[in-house]
Fold this protein.
Amino acid sequence: MFDLVNGIPVHPLVVHAVVVLLPLAVLGTVAIVVRPAWRARYGPLVVACAAVATALVPVATSSGEELEHRVGDPGRHAALGDQLIWFALALLATSAVLVWLDRRRDAGKGSVSGLRAVAALALIAAVAAGVQVYRVGDSGAQAAWGDQVASSAP
């Protein structure tokens, strides 16, 4: 299902969306943790970005498995890619709860201590997701380009 589109592998197409959207969600989460005044205005956008990125991760892994049948085992990249969904889900959940609790607090129904705890968890989830997306991307680049670049070095 996630093999080719017009003769081009789906994997690199979808991966580029994940590689852009997930780091944007990471940066957005850090921003709304550090600047609470931005939560009301930008929080829903951050959550939407995290949601789209999270939804695309399984498409990226499924298309990667299809590509693996054509070009061979990417090694460590596949295992790291399979783990990325958990980091994306943690980022999505914590950023969504942060925005939700902030709205409840604004309505006079939430506690500041709970909000701070979730903000700390969201920050941890953002850093972890950022590190993991880097690890997945780096291992993918090494799998795809490592041999070609190394063999053509001057």
In short: The helical segments are 10-34, 39-71, 76-106, 112-151. The longest helix spans residues 112-151. The mean pLDDT is 91.
